[in-house]
Amino acid sequence: MMSAWGLLAACSQGSPLEEHGETANAEWISPLSLKLDAEARLTPAMREQRRASMILTPYLEMKDSCYVLDISEKDAEKLGVSAAVYKKVVQGLDDSNAAIARARKEGMHLTFPDLDELKATADSFLRAERKS
């Protein structure tokens, strides 16, 4: 099931070039932050989930301290996200919101990714995908 963190992680992974102090390297798939061999090992379902995450990220919002997807299932399907994957994402967001609520209730301090940065990364991925 795709959690909010899974949706966010799909496009929030730090650049491996930054993490490893490397310069640009064709071995890495930039917006995905995956090595080519790792990309080759993804199953078709994993690829679909990752692509759906990138498509849906621009519609991810924080409202009333909860993550919500500001796109309907029907509109997501028009963008190429299957109903099944959309439902997994929504269920994952619900699960994540429940976990966030529990953590806050327990007094945990939480930090959240910058949604604008995530949206920019998703946009870069989708533009690169259209070029290929």
Helix/strand layout:
Blueprint: H1 4-12, H2 16-19, E1 28-29, E2 34-35, H3 36-41, H4 44-56, E3 60-63, E4 66-69, H5 73-78, H6 83-105, H7 115-131
Antiparallel strand pairs: 1-2, 3-4
Main pleated-sheet profile: 2 strands, antiparallel
Integer average pLDDT: 75
Estimate the global geometry from the Cα principal axes: globular
How many strand elements? 4
Structural class: mainly alpha
Q: pLDDT below 50 for ≥5 consecutive residues: which ranges?
A: 1-6, 8-32
User: Order of SSEs, N→C?
Assistant: HHEEHHEEHHH
The gyration radius over C-alpha positions equals 15 Å
- Terminus-to-terminus distance: 29 Å
Fraction of residues in β-strands: 5-15%
Number of domains: 1
- Helix segment count? 7
Secondary structure: helix percent: 55-70%
- Spatial order of strands in the largest sheet: 1-2
Describe this protein with a few key phrases.
9% strand, single chain, 132 residues, 4 strands, globular, mainly alpha, two-stranded antiparallel ribbon
Could you please describe the fold and organization of this structure?
- With 132 residues, the chain is mainly alpha-helical.
- It has one domain (4-13, 44-131).
- The protein has seven helices and four strands; from the N terminus they run ααββααββααα.
- The strands form two sheets. Strands 1-2 form a two-stranded antiparallel sheet. Strands 3-4 form a two-stranded antiparallel sheet.
- A hairpin with a 2-residue loop joins strand 3 (60-63) and strand 4.
- Helix 1 packs across helix 4 (44-56) and helix 4 (44-56) crosses helix 7.
- The protein is globular, with a radius of gyration of 15 Å.
- The model is unreliable at 1-6 and 8-32 (pLDDT under 50).
